[in-house]
Amino acid sequence: MDPCPFVRILVGNLALKIPVASKPARSGVHPATSPCFCKIRLKNFPLQTSIVPLIPPDVQFPDGQPQTLAASFHLSKADLGKLAAKSIFAAKPCLKISIYTGRRGTTCGVNSGRLLGRVSVPLDLEGTESRSCVFHNGWISVGKNAKGSSAHLHLNVRTEPDPRFVFQFDGEPECSPQVFQIQENIRQPVFTCKFSFRNSGDRYQRSRSSSQSEPGSSMGWLSSLGSDRERPGKERKGWSITVHDLSGSPVAAASMVTPFVASPGTDRVSRSNPGAWLILRPGDGTWKPWGRLEAWRERGSSDCLLGYRFELLADASGGMGAAGIVLAESTLSTNKGGKFMIDMSANGRFTPANSCSPACSPRNSGDFGYGLWPYCMYRGFVMSSRVEGEGKCSKPTVEVSVQHVNCTEDAAAFVALSAAIDLSMDACRLFSQKLRKELCQPQDVMR
Asked: Which residues are CB-neighbours of 190 under 8 A, at least 6 positions away?
């Protein structure tokens, strides 16, 4: 398998020095004592925001300051080409950072922060697919006044190559599609998927040898990691998808171990009672748990957010049992969809507070979040998967960092995880809405 070239632009090690003003700010709060944040822009990419720590004017960064990642931008070869094409007729692409004092957010539709100034860092991205490059590392004046009275921002802007394997489903996961590896204009089949319903009557009875395509029915320990809820009423249960290599051997699976059940008196799967999947890998003649994905529907006025949490599980020899490390926890729009992402370098998007394991937050590291605790093997960008909104044709595209794929089973596990998060969008639909026939038990379709 040949990877596709990707480049990551990393922005980090932010700090701000503001000179002591002779007069207080109009708001009555001196800027040096109020919180600060910044908005980081790269053309054609979503805006990102980050807190900017304030340090006294006489302190030299990074003494005593945590070195953290504030933002990261992921550029494919096509993205690099677009930026290079634009630079022929205009200046080189620039990273633009706007610094604000005050708290983030809006009040009555008006931004609550006060603009302190802007900085711009030119980017020469030629050749960055194969080499790292530092565009800025140190202090820079903020605003028009470049004299000693101006504020100064410390930042590090650099790029690093991040080659990835790219896989694309040839259809919706519930339609048992093929999965292709994509490299530029070449599409090569690498996996096949089989969607099925687990038979609740013999859920834990058969061995893998007699039912390789139904991993959910082959493991007696499955009930200890999931929930065997069997309650009357509104629920979706028993879904399973198995990933096979081209020889027909099962190499990964996703099995719904906790049914998606509507909370009492509602049509919604709630955060307090989420459904769950186990992501499974073959090993020692049986299936072993690799990860656990929980999903629910967030409560809100618009009622259009899918919440999720993904935990990495250790094998039986790891002594972790059902406890795991939370690698991803966020939301996706049920209307527009979005990207499910595991990025262990994104300090602002990774919060291990709910993890049952020792803290492995990137904010404890010395280099943009790479100093993770030794039991966590994943570093930097891990994977992403595009998820479409409800009612839209979904053919997930999965990107996996090369450094996290050592064998076919590694790639297949991420493909199975991608299928699970995509199917969770349907599993968490309001129970007042009907699912497509492929997602309904045969007896339900006949009714």
From this structure: 1, 167, 179, 180, 181, 245, 246, 411
391 and 250 assigned to the same domain? yes
Q: 10 Å Cβ neighbour count for 15?
A: 21
Domain boundary among 139, 161, 183: 161
Backbone φ and ψ of 24, nearest 5°: -70, 160
Residues 429 and 432: their CA atoms lie apart, in Å, by 8
Please count the structural domains in the chain: 2
- Together in a domain, 209 and 131: no
Bridge-partner residues for 250, per DSSP?
244
Q: Which one of 161, 193, 226 terminates a domain?
A: 161
Domain of 47, CATH number, reads 2.60.40.150
Averaged pLDDT, 77-91: 74
Domain residue limits at 258: 164-446
Determine the pLDDT at residue 211: 38
Summarised one tens digit per residue, pLDDT across range 300-353 is: 656 689 999 999 986 543 334 456 889 999 999 999 999 999 998 754 333 332
**Beta-carbon contacts of residue 446 (< 8 Å; ≥ 6 apart):** none
User: pLDDT confidence of 96, banded at 50, 70, 90?
Assistant: very high
pTM for this one? 0.81
Residues in the chain: 447
Do 133 and 265 share a domain, yes or no? no
Find out whether the peptide bond into 62 is cis, omega within 30 degrees of 0.
yes
**For residue 400, what are its two tokens?**
């996996």
Is position 405 within any domain? yes
Residue 57: band (very low, low, confident or very high) from pLDDT cuts 50, 70, 90: confident
Residue 1 lies in a domain: no
Q: Give the pLDDT confidence score for residue 259 in this predicted structure.
A: 96
